[in-house]
Specification:
- With about 550 residues, the protein is an alpha+beta fold.
- The chain contains 16 helices and 21 strands.
- The strands form 4 sheets. The chain has a 7-stranded antiparallel sheet with strand order 7-6-5-11-10-9-8, with helices on both faces.
- A hairpin with a 3-residue loop joins strand 17 and strand 18.
- Helix 9 packs antiparallel against helix 10.
- The radius of gyration is 29 Å and the shape is globular.
- The chain starts with 18 loop residues before the first strand and ends with a helix.
């Protein structure tokens, strides 16, 4: 993480005063759904409305089947009933009232939704009838995600999601101006780091956004003296520039430190993934069902096949324009083509790292990297899964660079274990391996099972169909446990598991010799206490300032 520029003071949205969201927020949050429903109703009733009104108010006009016959009751056609009973004016008035009430509701929700940033917390107040006031401590921030859905990008807006420790504790600001979201993210990370408001700092997530916001402000001021056409052209030009701009600004990190994924690798890895195996199996089942006349099976397996295809497509599109790099305020991960998203994981927030390799990827040397971080919502499992995937597919060299970004302080000591852990299916140098009798419970993967401790990190190795190499920073470990059921006790084996915050990574060694497991347990427990006592990564800005 290099110092490339001096960051400007804390921005206007983090001045301790209450602020409102982007003016287009009501439209982006719920207005689009309302317009879509209204358009659907109008589209479906359009022909009937035209037919009824023409036949009623054009005496010489007749439908192809003759004049309409009104029975005087409502029947199944509300349009006919309204016209028959002379309630057209009232119906139009009621529709206008509904539209006005909906618009007024959206406007009031926007007016009542405010936020402010103090030295200690991000506070959000919202609600019309039932008011809520949420406060998220800055020192508990686990990550900040900036998402730019396609339609929001047309308005120059972005969604800022702040993840804090605790289940479903995230704070959502939907929506802010695109440059404002970047600037506010930098301000939040700077305050969370322990740096004081008046201090200068190395350029991080906010440094370039400041310049971008200032440039946008100057452009808007200059456009104020020009014609409407010129102002519209300037707005369109800015939107085009935003669409074409990379998610990671080149000034935030040296180009050589940025990890990217080539498009052919993204497509090939998706087609060789486990989901493709399921898709092929479903296609075979569907073909067999058609050949045997078991049509009932199609109602089950065709939707399943469509779901798999949808997942594969989202996997490919979600990895487009992928980049990961280190900045002054943490690791920045960005991806997306039309709808984009990027998140920043501050230092000291990663509780576990897993590099895994699927069977069909081994010939190409591809790996994927996931992490456990606090603050992932159980109610948003799909979104949490996306945020914990920091490297969709990469080579062994990419894995080394990503591990270096996520655990920079321990990289030198971990380098030998990383090299040995990624290589081969047999025992690795530096690891305490499973004995041969472990083959009774892990017949295919027992040779690869092992554990090592170095650089304040526990490194666990295992897996056959899916090779896994797990890193657990012991300063953030929750607990460690050994266990042995009747079979393991009879074989003189024990399993060892390290508990961290909830996430996709499960640090566990399935089988170790009983004495090796006891020694590993004692070493990890003692090292975790020592590392936790000395760890100061949660206030990285204050540590650097001192």
């Amino acid at each position: 993480m290099t110092e490339r520029a001096v960051r400007a003071p804390i921005g206007p949205l983090a001045d301790g005063e209450w602020h409102r969201l982007h003016p287009a927020s009501p439209l982006l949050r719920g207005g689009l759904v309302f317009l879509a429903v209204l358009g659907f109703v109008i589209a479906n009733l359009r022909e009937r409305v035209v037919e009824v009104f023409v036949l009623l108010f054009a005496p010489g006009a007749e439908a192809p089947g003759g004049p309409p016959e009104f029975s005087g009751d409502w029947g199944e056609d509300p349009i006919t009933g309204i016209v028959t009973h002379g309630l057209v004016g009232w119906a139009l008035l009621a529709l206008a009232v509904v539209i006005v009430l909906v618009v007024l509701g959206f406007w009031l929700a926007w007016r009542m939704h405010t936020f402010r940033v103090t030295d200690e917390a991000l506070e959000v107040r919202s609600g019309i009838l039932f008011r809520s006031h949420r406060s998220a401590r800055l020192d508990r921030i686990q990550g900040i995600n900036v998402a730019r859905p396609l339609f929001a990008r047309l308005f120059g807006a972005a969604k800022l999601d702040v993840s804090v420790a605790g289940q479903s504790g995230n704070v959502d600001l939907s929506y802010l101006g695109s440059a404002q979201a970047d600037r506010l993210r930098g301000d939040l990370l700077r305050l969370a780091s322990g740096a004081r408001r008046h201090e200068g700092a190395a350029a991080g997530d906010g440094g370039v956004a400041v310049a971008g916001a200032d440039a946008a402000s100057r452009a808007q001021s200059a456009a104020g003296a020009t014609s409407v056409v010129d102002r519209a052209g300037a707005v369109v030009g800015r939107r085009v520039d935003e669409f074409l701009a990379p998610e990671l600004d080149p000034d935030l990190a040296p180009p050589e430190s940025v990890v990217r994924i080539p498009l052919p690798r993204v497509i090939a890895s998706a087609l060789l993934g486990g989901s493709m195996v399921w898709f092929v199996a479903l296609v075979v089942i569907i073909v067999v069902a058609l050949a045997t006349g078991a049509v009932w099976m199609l109602f089950t397996f065709i939707p399943a096949a469509i779901g798999v295809v949808s997942y594969l497509w989202s996997r490919i599109t979600g990895s487009l324009r992928y980049s990961i790099a280190g900045t002054a305020d943490g690791v920045r991960i960005g991806s997306g083509l039309l709808s984009t998203a990027n998140q920043t994981i501050p230092p000291g927030r990663v509780h576990a790292i897993e590099a895994s390799q699927w069977l069909l990827w081994r010939a190409f040397g591809w790996w994927t990297v996931r992490v456990n971080v606090a603050g992932q919502s159980l109610s948003q499992a799909a979104e949490s899964a996306r945020r914990t995937l920091v490297l969709p597919v990469g080579t062994a060299d990419d894995v080394r660079r990503v591990i270096g970004l996520l655990a920079p302080d321990a990289l030198d000591e971990l380098a030998p274990l990383l090299e040995a852990g990624l290589a081969g299916s047999g025992p690795a140098a530096g690891f305490t391996s499973a004995p041969r009798r472990a083959a009774w419970i892990r017949p295919f993967s027992w040779r690869r099972i092992g554990i090592a401790v170095g650089g304040g990190t526990a490194v666990l190795r295992g897996g056959w169909l899916l090779r896994r190499l797990v890193f657990v920073p012991l300063a953030r470990m929750q607990s460690v446990a050994v266990a042995a059921g009747p079979v393991r006790r009879g074989l003189g084996l024990e399993s060892l598991r390290i508990h961290t915050v909830a996430g996709p990574v499960t640090p566990e060694v399935a089988a170790l010799d009983r004495d090796d497991a006891t020694r590993a347990f004692s070493a990890i427990a003692a090292e975790a206490v020592d590392r936790a006592r000395r760890d100061g990564s949660e206030r990285w800005g204050a540590a650097h300032a001192s």
